[in-house]
Amino acid sequence: MSDLMPEGIVGFGRNPMSLPNQLKLTQFSYCLVSHKFDDTSKSSNLILGNSGVVTGVSYTPLLKNPSMLPFSGYYYVQLEQITINDKIVKIPHKILNTDSSGNGGTIVDSGSTLTSLAPSLFGPVANEYIAQMAPGQRNRVVIGELSLGNMVCVKGAGEKGMVIPEVGFQFKGGVKIELTVGNYFNGGSGLLCLPFVNVTFEVGLTGSGPAVILGNYQQQNLYVEYDLKNERFGFKKQVC
């Protein structure tokens, strides 16, 4: 694992000064290697422009952005359901939609490490995750404050006999991103954590922002495509 600091940060958002806008790109894509660097010794690929014919890509529409800054520079998608072991989590769907002030909704952000969930989403997801654990293993689930925020973790998740519930995010059009153990975050002390952090604000307050921010832990080993010409977001599971 490299401990070198990056030389700079490149902006790929929708704002006028972003690299895609300056280069007048109609598409860009990437495939993020595992954070554990266990799949390949190569770095992640970034393709500026059309990547050619890529089969098996699932698409969901990119939504119209709120006009207010900084929300106008984000990539919004319509998250419709969160599932655990294919059971739909009961969540307040109102905050999955974005209002004119930029509150609510879901954005994709490769610059965010973990996925952020508003409290009214994080709570139901955490509770259903525990409910889907085997009865004798529910005491292994820890919900607590780590260095990066309030997270759901499992003690000894890699031990023989441990069964980890499958978590899925379903978007408009029926397309779905499913998490594997490889998407989990090492919380230390034998804890393996869902790549979700409970944000400190509740959606609905002025300026609070998106209810869900899909971070790069959730994008590991996915081919991710931003089709700006056709206003759609695509992804495909693969080893990057």
Automatic annotation (TrEMBL):
GO molecular function list: aspartic-type endopeptidase activity
Annotated SUPFAM superfamilies: Acid proteases
Gene3D superfamilies associated with the record: Acid Proteases
Domain Peptidase A1: 1-236
One Pfam family of this chain: TAXi_N
PROSITE patterns reported in the protein's UniProt record: PEPTIDASE_A1
GO cellular component, one term: extracellular region
InterPro entries reported for this sequence: Pepsin-like_plant, PEPTIDASE_A1, Peptidase_aspartic_dom_sf, Plant_Aspart_Prot_A1, TAXi_C, TAXi_N
Signal peptide: none
One GO term of the biological process aspect: proteolysis
Highest taxon in the source lineage: Eukaryota
Keywords: Aspartyl protease, Glycoprotein, Hydrolase, Protease
Keyword Ribonucleoprotein assigned: no
Family recorded in the similarity comment: Belongs to the peptidase A1 family.
Protein's name according to its UniProt entry: Peptidase A1 domain-containing protein
